């Protein structure tokens, strides 16, 4: 049921790949809640995914953008402001890529060139986007920026590999830029630490099926779905959360603050 929480608002959704992706589902929810959208992804991801199908559903243009390229980001923001007729209100950063994971490199044997690329795409891309928006005065007062992260930024999950470091850096960028953008324009910047979710990207992590089952048993409310996350993002884009900024918000059914559950103990005692 729509509450029109985003009526009159405009924003950019980064990272919608296919119907499993959180960005895809968030775009649908934002549209249902009255928002006007622009969709963007890297050219290679656009070839792999189905973003044009989503664009038809939410009536949004698609603008390719390699987030490791400053010129691409400038072009995206310029075209977004042209399309919207001025400033816009929100951004979802749902981007992550690890070349070391793709190449099967163990965390203790990283290729540092790959590592730099991972950080550039998965973390510093948020800084580039925010810096470009600030320079161009692209976001409205009280705008909202959300980046998706994971609890591996704070705790060790061995098979999450270098993405744990990338998410730590992403969260730091959100805090630091959130301060400066808050002072300058009342723009709020937060990260959402989501439960393990069966997206195309998430399912590629080694041992994912076993871990998602473990997380389900470790979460008092169970794992948060992609749709649950999309609903949460909508509230963070709305005016109902105007004073929340520089936070890492756990959206994981209680996993992040649970030491152990009866279900896990019972499993271990079998």
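-> sequence recovered:
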């Amino acid at each position: 049921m729509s509450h029109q929480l985003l009526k009159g608002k405009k924003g950019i959704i980064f990272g919608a790949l296919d119907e499993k992706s959180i960005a895809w589902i968030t775009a649908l929810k934002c549209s249902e809640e009255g928002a006007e959208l622009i969709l963007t992804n890297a050219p290679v991801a656009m070839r792999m995914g189905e973003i044009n199908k989503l664009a038809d559903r939410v009536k949004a243009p698609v603008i390719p953008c390699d987030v490791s390229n400053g010129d691409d980001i400038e072009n995206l923001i310029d075209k977004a402001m042209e399309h919207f007729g001025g400033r816009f209100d929100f951004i979802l950063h749902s981007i992550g890529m690890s070349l070391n994971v793709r190449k099967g490199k163990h965390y203790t044997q990283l290729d540092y060139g790959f590592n730099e690329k991972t950080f550039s795409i998965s973390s510093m891309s948020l800084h580039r986007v925010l810096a470009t928006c600030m320079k161009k005065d692209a976001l409205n007062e009280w705008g909202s920026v959300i980046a998706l992260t994971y609890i591996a930024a704070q705790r060790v999950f061995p098979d999450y590999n270098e993405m744990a470091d990338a998410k730590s850096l992403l969260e730091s960028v959100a805090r630091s830029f959130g301060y400066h953008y808050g002072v300058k324009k009342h723009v709020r910047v937060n990260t959402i630490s989501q439960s393990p979710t069966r997206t195309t990207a998430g399912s590629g992590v080694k041992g994912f099926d076993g871990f998602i089952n473990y997380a389900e048993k470790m979460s008092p409310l169970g794992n948060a779905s992609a749709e649950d996350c999309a609903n949460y993002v909508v509230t963070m884009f709305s005016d109902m959360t105007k004073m929340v900024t520089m936070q890492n918000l756990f959206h994981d059914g209680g996993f992040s603050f649970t030491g152990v559950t009866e279900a896990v103990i019972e499993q271990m005692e079998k």
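The chain has a mean pLDDT of 95.
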